[in-house]
Model the fold of this input.
Amino acid sequence: MPFRFEIEARDDKARAGRLFTPHGEVQTPVFMPVGTVATVKGVPQDTLEELGVQILLNNTYHLYLRPGVEMIRQLGGVQKFMSWDHPILTDSGGFQVFSLSSLRKVTEEGVTFRSHLDGSSHFFSPESATAAQIGLGADIIMAFDECTEHPAEYARTQASMEMTLRWAARSKKYFEEHRQEVPWFADPALAKRRLERGTRDGSTRSSEAGEHQALFGIVQGGMFPDLRRESARRTVELDFPGYAIGGLSVGEPRPMTYEMVNAAIRFLPEDKPRYLMGVGTPEEIVQYVAQGVDMMDCVLPTRAARHGLLFTSEGRITIKNARYAGDDSPLDPNCGCKVCARYSRAYLRHLYASNELLAQVLNTIHNLAYYVDTMRKVREEIRAGTFATRS
Ligand SMILES: [Zn+2]
Done:
């Protein structure tokens, strides 16, 4: 298997390690910025590289509707399409179908839904959602799941969880029969990179025919610890190279999120990556690392930035606030990003108040830098053995 996960350090339940994917390595724990339609809104790819972003999340639902899977496949896959020669993860489309589309109809076979763009009718099944993700060609792809609404009754949540398990098995079967169809399967550049890596670490993967993606399973089970446990146990029986915990951060109180993560994570294998979907604030992502989570994604840093909410080492700043109008200090004196190095709060406040495009760009760059730096420090602390005892 070209896809590999190695844990290099532990501090209590937290782990620091490395994910090896066809488009490069990722140091974990990692926060993945969201690039919904193959762009992190307002931020060019070279800036993402400067910030130290290692892996992006793209949304299958959006790219399937526009520009379409076949277009991206013909252009060599989503990494080539968006000129991001680094790892990408796509979600299964399940969450967007449930949150964005109208008139959806769920059956055992799959979900019929209407596009939020033009109202046209579409159908996602475990097979077609997996086919779409193979065509897009992200390095890590997700089994098609039903994100149970919140709140939901026990019986409804259990039935939904059971269907997600059946859909996971169908996604895996389809993936195993079609994974060589990924657009970059026999890409010579990737083969060369793989050979170099094989030489470096002494492994013999160079004898394989080509590179393919890694398909992760998703744990559901709503807000019921026993269903989370059951879902985790049985998803692991299906045997995936990594596991996600989905269906959280859907409006429940935060202590409940922690409880559900805890209920599921104890049943996920130690040696496989664990991905908590759709979280969280800078304080929360550190808490999830402490629970043993390796990967996270969230629209919060980028969306909040566009609304003028900035995360700093001294707390949150709402930049539109009049108190910053004459403030010539940097946004965050402890941040090394190029926004904090160059611009004042007064200027950022002026850009925001004037509704200038540059406000969104600069705010997003800073918030991403703050998240990336938070995770970099967490990794250093885990490796130094000082993370679990941090105040
Ligand atoms: Zn900054």
